[in-house]
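Researcher: I'm preparing a figure for a lab meeting and need a structural model of a single chain. I don't have an experimental structure, so a prediction will have to do for now. The sequence is pasted below. Please return the structure as tokens so I can convert it later.
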Amino acid sequence: MKQMAYVVYREDEFMVAQCLNVDVSSFGTTREEAVASLKEAVELYFENEPNPAFTSVADVNVGMEPVNA
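Model: Understood. Here is the structure written out token by token.
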């Protein structure tokens, strides 16, 4: 059992949950739905992986900065 680190943000009408340990994301109409969906997606991602690469993440901080885009 591993600890999944994630971030949740709003994108239009959906809440998006992005895993920070592996490149997997999911969404839902609520934060809880998005996180539950992400957990299921991550578990499915590892289901058939013989040597899964799971990066440990600690000290998570989220910020916003303006960019010229």
